[in-house]
Amino acid sequence: MAMAAKLVLIFVFCFAAIIPLLEANSGYDEDGVWKKRKEEAKKSMMESYVPDPLVVTDEFDVQINQDKGNNGTATHDDDDDGDDDVKEENKNVSGSVNTTTNSSRRSLRKKRYTGPCHTTNPIDACWRCRPDWESRRKSLGRCALGFGRRTNGGMAGKIYVVTDNNDDDLLEPKPGTLRYGVIQKEPLWITFAKDMNIKLSQELIMNSNKTIDGRGHKVHIAYGAGITIQFVSNVIIHGIRIHHICAKGGGMIRDSPDHYGLRTQSDGDGITIFGSSNVWIDHVSMSKCGDGLIDAVQGSTAVTISNCLFTRHNDVMLLGASDSFAGDQFMQVTVAFNRFGQGLLQRMPRCRWGFFHVVNNDYTYWKMYAIGGSKHPTIISQGNRFLAPDDIHLKSVTKRDYAPESEWRNWVWRSEGDLFMNGAFFTQSGQQNMKARPSHEYMIQANPGEFAARMTRYAGALECVRGKKC
Length: 470
Ligand SMILES: *[C@@H]1O[C@H](CO)[C@@H](O)[C@H](O)[C@H]1NC(C)=O
Ligand SMILES: *[C@@H]1O[C@H](CO)[C@@H](O)[C@H](O)[C@H]1NC(C)=O
Ligand SMILES: *[C@@H]1O[C@H](CO)[C@@H](O)[C@H](O)[C@H]1NC(C)=O
Ligand SMILES: *[C@@H]1O[C@H](CO)[C@@H](O)[C@H](O)[C@H]1NC(C)=O
Ligand SMILES: *[C@@H]1O[C@H](CO)[C@@H](O)[C@H](O)[C@H]1NC(C)=O
What we know:
470 residues; binds 2-acetamido-2-deoxy-beta-D-glucopyranose
């Protein structure tokens, strides 16, 4: 046994140096198993791709609007708490306006609200104010909206409870650990027995049909490697905190009960979505990772990133990593109800090739720009609030890379109902008279940007207590 371990070590040591050069971007040593996964992933990616995405944005907007009619939702949520600054600044605005308040660097996020449960957006309205959330955890699997709306994670499977926060055996992870749960083939709804800090020794390679559900406990994935969702489909990550993720050297890692393989260096992303589809990331708090907070690359599609709280980080969200990888034209991602908070620099998100619906997010901080891209991505920005920094050179929300204006002026980048503050502005391009909704049958918009602050009030991991509304 000791001998075997030694051999593996030597093997790892020799190849770790060579393989990064060969497989610089893929992170794995392709064998028959990975080849098969890649083919299957591609098939499910193409099945998830929506040829006319504007229909999907229609559907999304309809649901937001229906929600307005409910009690205790965004438009009816008039209680007075924690968000005084925001309200004050938003009180007297309508549509896309330019408010020049200079209160921008005041903290926009005060103490956590502790009053009665209010849902402020339609994803939360699906589950959050039900006191029995704990016994009905899996009903969250029906709550996704946007491009990732078919994602139900491990809803069809059993509940698997993580009882052990160790991650010391990458080849034979012990039952009870997070790693043991995520590599299984069957669908699993993964929960946690207690508050936990999990320091991943190497990247956590997830299998299909899984939910990681941190509700009920404070679960941190921190000070180690990040989460990798590669060539799989149907994954939900909900209610955890991911921070201080660092690059790890790679090595032999088990990725399913009957397979392990050699991984190259992981680059320190919080969550990497690689060639995968139907992924929903909701109510995750993320900060301070070695590379990106969330990267979706290699044709990943049908992804929704919602209700997340992002703070203190440089490259926040990279959607499409390569100008030369045309497979990313199938990438379709919804970025909704997230709060881009203090200490962020850029890429919220940074897009390539595909179709990106950025809706009702609250941007309270950036140091370079908010939304960027190259390779003619389509970006539909609706009902976001953009609060620019005071620096006069940093007022632009948008940034285009690697293309002269003669080229990018044809890219479809639309802003509708966004709220611009402190001089923020969005440079639109593409057909001037184009509306994000081709059909007026469902002529209903995402909520206007004035609502973005309250719609994102509960962004990040929630503190849910059993028997009480979250
Ligand atoms: C909302 O709730 C209030 C009081 O609970 C009720 O009077 C009102 O009719 C409700 N509105 C809707 C749209 O359900
Ligand atoms: C907005 O504020 C200005 C000045 O404070 C006021 O003149 C105007 O009537 C207000 N508009 C609305 C819609 O309240
Ligand atoms: C906003 O306030 C800061 C510091 O209080 C000041 O340096 C800056 O010039 C102000 N900006 C505007 C546009 O008034
Ligand atoms: C995931 O679940 C779906 C539906 O139950 C099933 O068709 C599919 O084969 C599963 N995927 C994997 C990789 O097991
Ligand atoms: C915003 O409004 C102020 C005052 O009305 C004006 O001076 C400024 O030029 C406007 N900025 C933009 C970007 O429209």
